[in-house]
Each structure stands twice: as C-alpha cells, then as structure tokens.
Specification:
Blueprint lengths: L27 H7 L6 E5 L4 E2 L4 H11 L4 E5 L18 E4 L6 H5 L25 H12 L5 E3 L1 H6 L4 E3 L4 E3 L2 H5 L3 E3 L4 H12 L13 E6 L9 E2 L12 E4 L3 H6 L1 H13 L8 E6 L2 E5 L8 H8 L6 E2 L9 H6 L2 E3 L1 E2 L10 H5 L4 E2 L2 H14 L6 E2 L1 E3 L13 H6 L19 H11 L6 E2 L7 H4 L3 H10 L4 E7 L3 H7 L4 H17 L5 E8 L6 H13 L8 E2 L7 H8 L20 H11 L7 H10 L22 H6 L12
Parallel strand pairs: 1-3, 1-4, 4-5, 5-8, 10-11, 11-12, 15-19, 18-20, 21-22, 22-23
Antiparallel strand pairs: 2-14, 6-7, 8-9, 9-13, 12-13, 16-17
Helix pairs in contact: 9-21, 15-17, 17-19, 20-22
Length: about 650
C-alpha cells in the first residue's frame, strides 16, 4: 500500500486566522460573532449538534476547522423546501451531507416497521425531526438552494447505501444513494483522510468533477469510463500484476433488482473487496452511467486517531438547546471511544461495511487525557466513567502479526470459524490501560459498557480477572446471539463452547473478588438460517440456564449487510452463489417473526397461546405442561397480576377464626 499523507501534514487554509470557535456556528448571528462573512464548508445533519467526537458532524467539523476552514452547521433542517438550507448563506467550497449517526430508516422505524415514538439524537427525544432517506433528501434540497455548489454525501447512511442495495422498509432493491441524491461525490467509511484532501484540493481550485482518485470515494461516470487506458476489468486481460489498475464489475443495478441470485453474488463480490491492502475498485452500472467506487480508505495511525479525538471539542450540546435532554448525549457523556473497527465480521452488523476490519487504536496517553477532560469539563461527573470501549470492548491494539499477511488477506473474519493463528490476541495493552485509568485523580470507577468478544477474552484469563475485579457493575453484556449451529454459521459467530468457557472464568473471577455478578447474554430471533426448531432449542437453553430476557432483538435487514443479502435472496453470499447453490431458510412473515421473538420470551404469559399453538404444529406438544422440563404451561393466567408474574394464580387462604 502507498503510504497515506498524514492528516496533520497539510498547510492550513488562510482562514485559520479566525481561530477556534467555542461551538461551530448554526446561525448567521453565530457567524457574525466569530467575525465570519461566509462559511467555507456547510455541513448538514439529521442529528442535534453535540460538540463531542462521538457525533460525526462535530468530529468532521472540528477536523476541518483544524485545517483552517470555516465550518458551519445546518442541523435538522426543514426538508420540505430549500429555504432552510440557505440559512448560513452560500458555502465557498461545498455542502457536506449526512443523515446523522444512524441510518435514518433504522433511526425512525423498528424491526417490525413501526414508527418509533422517540429519537435519541434529538432534543427531548422529539420524533419526526428528519425525513426518511435523509441523506438523499438533504442533498436534493441543498442542490435546490445553490445549484452551482458541490454536494458531498457521507456518514453511515451513505456508506451502507453506496451500491445498489436491498431496502427493507420499501421491500425493493434501491439504486445507490449517489444516483438518487444526485450528489457530486460520496465518501464512505471513516472519511477523515479523504475529506481533508478533498477540501484542500477544492480550495485550491480543482473542480470536484476532476477529483477521481480519492480512496474511500464514489462517483457517477459515463458507462465504460476508466481513470486511464491502463485500467482493465478483472477477467478481461491475462495479467496478474498490478491490482491497483484493475476493477471488479458488479452485476448492474437493473440485474440485481430483477434477479435475487445476482444480488447475492454482488454482495459476495462486494465484501471480498473490503481490505484496504488488496481491494480493487468496484464498478456497477446504473442505466447509462457507471457507479465507480475507489478502494476503501487507509486506516488512521495512532497519532492521527489521537489528533482527531484531541481536537478542541466543547464536549456539550450547543447552548441553543438549553435544558433539553438529548438521550444519545446522556448515554455517552461519561464514556470514551478507545478504538475503531471490528474484525469479527458478523454478517448482520454494519461496522465492517462502515469502519472496516482493521483496528485503529488511540494511545493510552490520549485516552487518559480525555478522562481528565471529562472530569474537568463535563457537568454531572461523579467520578464514574461509563465505558472505555468501541465497536468491541476488547479489540484494543489487536492486529495481524504480519503486515504483509494482513495486506494480502481476503478472509471476511479474523475469528470465524476459528481465531486466525496470525491474529495477535494479546490483552496486555488493554489491561495496562484499565489500570492506568483507575489511577487518574478524581476517578472512582471505570465501567466497561461496550459488548465484549468473549472468544478473544478467554485467551487472556488475566484480562477476565482484571475486568471482573474492577470494571463490571454487577452485570456484563455479551452477545452469543444464538445457541444452534445453523444460525450461528450464517452469523459467523462462535459456538457456545466459547461462551461456556468464558462463563466459567467469569464466575470464578467474580467469586475470587467476592462479588455477585452476572452475565447478560443477547440473542437474535429471525436471523437468516434460523428455523423454528432452532428457536425451540434456544428457548430450552434459556430456561435451563435460568434466563428470563426482558429486551430481545429481532433481525433487522440493514442495507449492504451480508445477512441482508441472505434475507433478500435466500442464498448464502459467504460462498459462491448460483441458482443451485445453498438455500438459506428465511423468516419473512410477520407472524413467524413474532413467533421466533416469542421463543426468546418463553416466560411471558402473553406469548403462551402463540407458543402452545406452534409447539403443537411442530410436533413438540411434549414441551407443554406444568413440569420443569416443559417450556410453557398448559394453563393460562386469568388475572393481570398473575400474568405479569408468570405464575399460576394461587387460591386465597381463609383467615384464621
């Protein structure tokens, strides 16, 4: 891989003389207070503005500010007309558009397609503050506001919709968001490197239509376009030398829309080209144009991660929100993101498609400094840090043992079906970080709230002992997701052997520490590859182990995930796909999805009628009865109080004479 130019290697733009804004401006009055007559870049987002690195627009805005650019924010605008997109005037360089920290459809709708009653990224959790398919709508309105201003889209919604994709909410295969939004450029993944270079190049006068070489970018071109005559499609020449001059042509949008097998094969090809070390460009035809995707962005170095997270964030919501509560802020205000990326490759998860598999970690010094920032600047801090984590709590500083092997690797997961022998699983840096964090003056306790990869943790009993002795607040979240091999294989998750080993180590360490602590496992219903019999076995396991789950999850097909390809096509994109290739059982109907979810809450009397009916139809009436070996009782409570308790109503005792 060609070495990347550092984020801090650019000469600052002339506007750096204006200095650092207390908060990025959201109004003309804010701009005037800073002495600005215009913004160089205007960022549009569907989230409330919280000036903290956990929120994408704040991170991007502060990063560009550090490069010397004047950055304004248009937050949760009225999307029904273009007027609100003119509130800060015309940007000198471009509009940057994002739906927010979540895909707008995931944010607004449940897995059952019901509209959510709140929005965690909005003041007072008020719903309805963003449109469906927000990245597309915002880009269209920005274009209407100023037709000659370039429009760049990014963030997780743009990343997950960068090629033709199945959209669960409309139940159709949609075009790339770039085609629908009519934006000039799409930046996918963690886009800091591409964004900084793009902004400097536009500022120097390069037309955005000529910027075609940024890693992590996508754009639309006439069909057949290539960067130069030296480029060729895979399979069209008998050459095996320079992968940087080859591209993979995915099945066209029109093809994958009409043919589910082609869709699954496109999913397989797409995910094979995800390693920045060897990924080739991807091309997908949309009508008379091609969607061109350059290879993924190169990961940030530790020094660059420290730079990004060490920018002068106010670490608070914008003052205009007053005393309003923003749930997403309340959840993370005392937590710290120590790394990015995940090499787990779980097929239902969008982390891989967005952040990639290579772990990007901050230095211990940077993390400890942020703890001090929380202690000194965040109102309400009582000495408890709620999380030192990231996508996965215990992948900090883990990497392939050989950079050459990493650059050549085509595996979709470093830990499935087994942990790769080339993967470094040393937890010592994380243990040292935990110990150092506990020593920061003013810190009473450090909790770990991010999900734990327990198949990695069992490689380090010392880590489990450290975690259990000091960083578990009574309960620890882990995610086996299922007990049965069928669904686990389609999730690319480990079997229950790793869970049982971790459980033994967890309980032994808790006992040694003199603490009563419990594991809280998470499971998914209705994932592709899951049969009703699989759910019966999972429910029996839950009962045998004494689990009565309150919060349960039904599979939600998010754009671009491998599991979504399975759900839509009934095929397995983890292998080469054809009409005769492996069929994957899929739960689509509302009633069957409800049934599989009911198995996870076998103890809820409201689910008993449905479960009894299903068990009889499955030939498992032997599980209906009033004994310990039965899954659901044969009786139904008659009063609400008993129903909530899940117990048979007891006869009242007569008072003594």
């Amino acid at each position: 891989m060609k070495p990347a130019k550092s984020l801090t290697a650019y000469r600052p733009y002339w506007a750096k003389r204006f200095g650092t804004a207390p908060f990025l401006p959201m109004s003309r009055a804010d701009m005037e207070a800073l002495g600005w007559d215009s913004c160089d870049v205007i960022l549009v987002t569907g989230d409330a503005y919280i000036d903290h690195p956990s929120f994408g627009m704040a991170l991007v805005g502060r990063l560009l500010e550090a490069q010397g650019f004047r950055v304004g924010l248009i937050v949760q605008p009225d999307w029904t007309a273009a007027d609100d997109f003119r509130r800060l005037g015309k940007p000198n360089l471009y509009f940057g558009i994002t739906a927010g920290n979540m895909d707008s459809m995931v944010n607004r709708y449940t897995a059952d397609k019901k509209i959510r009653s709140d929005d965690a990224y909005t003041a007072n959790a008020e719903p309805g503050k963003r449109p469906d398919y927000a990245a597309t709508v915002y880009a269209q309105r920005a274009r209407e506001a100023f037709k000659d201003v370039p429009v760049v889209i990014g963030g997780i919604e743009a990343s997950l919709r960068r090629i033709a994709h199945f959209d669960y909410w409309s139940e159709t295969v949609k075009r790339s968001v770039l085609a629908d939004s009519k934006a000039d450029l799409l930046l996918f993944g963690n886009a800091e490197r591409a964004l900084v270079e793009l902004t400097h190049r536009i500022a120097k006068g390069t037309p955005i239509s000529e910027i075609r070489d940024l890693r992590g970018s996508a754009f639309m071109v006439p069909t057949g376009w290539t960067p130069s005559p030296n480029w060729h499609e895979v399979g069209t020449r008998h050459v095996h030398d320079d992968r940087t001059l080859t591209y993979v042509r995915l099945p066209a949008y029109e093809t994958v829309k009409a043919d589910k097998v082609a869709y699954a094969e496109a999913s397989r090809l797409f995910h094979l080209e995800s390693n920045p070390g060897n990924a080739r460009a991807l091309v997908q035809q949309h009508g008379n144009r091609d969607l061109w995707l350059n290879p993924p962005p190169l990961p940030l170095s530790t020094a660059e991660m420290d730079h990004v997270y060490g920018l002068p964030y106010a670490r608070a919501p914008h003052p205009s929100y007053g005393e309003a509560k923003i749930p997403a802020w309340e959840m993370i205000r005392f937590s710290i993101n120590i790394m990015r990326g995940c090499f787990g490759g779980c097929t239902f998860c969008s982390i891989t498609e967005h952040e990639g598999r290579i772990i990007q970690s901050r230095s211990e010094a940077s993390i400890l400094h942020e703890i001090e920032e929380i202690r000194d600047k965040t109102p309400g801090f009582t000495g408890v840090v709620s999380d030192l984590g990231g996508p996965t709590a215990n992948m900090y500083r883990m990497a392939c043992k050989d950079s050459n092997i990493e650059a050549a690797c085509r595996r979709l997961s470093c830990v499935y079906p087994d942990i790769c022998p080339n993967l470094g699983t040393d937890h010592s840096a994380l243990i040292h970080l935990y110990r150092s964090a506990r020593q920061v003056p003013g810190v009473k306790r450090i909790l770990i709230g991010s999900g734990l990869r327990y198949d990695l943790a069992v490689r380090s009993p010392e880590y489990i002992k450290e975690l259990v002795s000091h960083h578990v607040g009574g309960y620890l979240k882990i995610a086996p997701e299922h007990t049965e091999e069928g669904p686990l294989a389609k999730m690319m998750k480990p079997g229950m052997g790793s869970y049982e080993k971790f459980k033994r180590l967890f309980e032994a360490a808790s006992k040694a520490a003199g603490k009563e602590q419990y594991l809280i496992p998470y499971f998914i219903a209705a994932h592709p590859g899951t049969t009703d019999n699989d759910m019966v076995e999972l429910a029996l396991w839950l009962k045998q182990n004494g689990f009565r789950l309150d919060q349960v999850q039904t599979f939600l097909p998010t754009p671009l995930a491998i599991a979504t390809g399975m759900w839509h096509s009934g095929k397995n994109p983890l292998k080469r796909v054809s009409k005769d290739s492996e069929e994957v059982p899929v739960v689509r109907g509302g009633r069957q999805r409800k049934l599989q979810k009911a198995f996870l809450r076998y103890h809820d009397p409201k689910n008993w009628p449905l479960l009894r009916e299903a068990l009889k139809a499955m030939g498992r009436a032997d599980l209906i009865g009033n004994g310990k070996r039965h899954l659901v009782p044969s009786w139904q409570p008659s009063d609400e109080k008993s129903a909530l308790a899940g117990r048979r109503p007891q006869p009242r005792r007569k008072p003594h004479a």
